[in-house]
Amino acid sequence: MSTLREEAEKEYFNRGLRKITSKRTDQVQMLFDRKASNKGAILEINADFPLVKLLEESLDPSQKKSFRLLKRIINSTINKMRNSHIDTSFTHQEVSEEGLALQDLIDTIKNLLEMGTNKGTIKSTVLPALGFRIDTVPTEINQLLK
To answer: What's the pLDDT tens digit per position in 59-94?
Structure first.
């Protein structure tokens, strides 16, 4: 009986109050962002996703370069699987838009070679996975992989 009475009092005293609805200013962060293209939606890892951001901030500069290349490989691979990826020409502008530089790719290839990765594997697997057309890879990289 007392519960019913408390509920009635709450209802009586709150009858003139309007329910305040607040809009969320921050959207739910998703791991992948969708971007439109002429082949459909392209998925890209969201650099602002909390775990991605935490991981990248915890890396040293050399590891960050490799991580950015890995993100590009993941983005390209996912979109190739979805048939929405188009290999692009290797241009300094496109690479720099992703926070990379030609030297980052060269340094990563050198690290892979030091770890014992076969030059043929890098040329046939790693470079195509980056989503660049092989015929547009800079001569510095081709010389490194001869």
So the answer is: 998 899 889 989 999 999 999 888 887 787 777 665
> What is d(CA 75, CA 56) in angstroms, rounded to the nearest whole number?
16
pLDDT digits (tens, 9 = 90+) for 109-146: 999 999 999 999 998 898 889 888 888 888 899 899 98
Closest CA to 138 of 100, 106, 98, 112: 106
Task: Give the global pTM.
Answer: 0.70
Under the phi-then-psi rule, with left for phi > 0, alpha for psi from -120 to 50, and beta for the rest, what region is 64?
A: alpha
Q: How many residues does the chain have?
A: 146
Domain boundaries, the chain: 2-144
3-state SS string over the chain?
CHHHHHHHHHHHHCCCCCCCCCCCCCCCCCCEEEEEECCEEEEEECCCCHHHHHHHHCCCHHHHHHHHHHHHHHHHHHHHHCCCCCCECCCHHHHHHCCCCHHHHHHHHHHHHHCCCCHHHHHHHHHHHCCECHHHCCHHHHHHCC
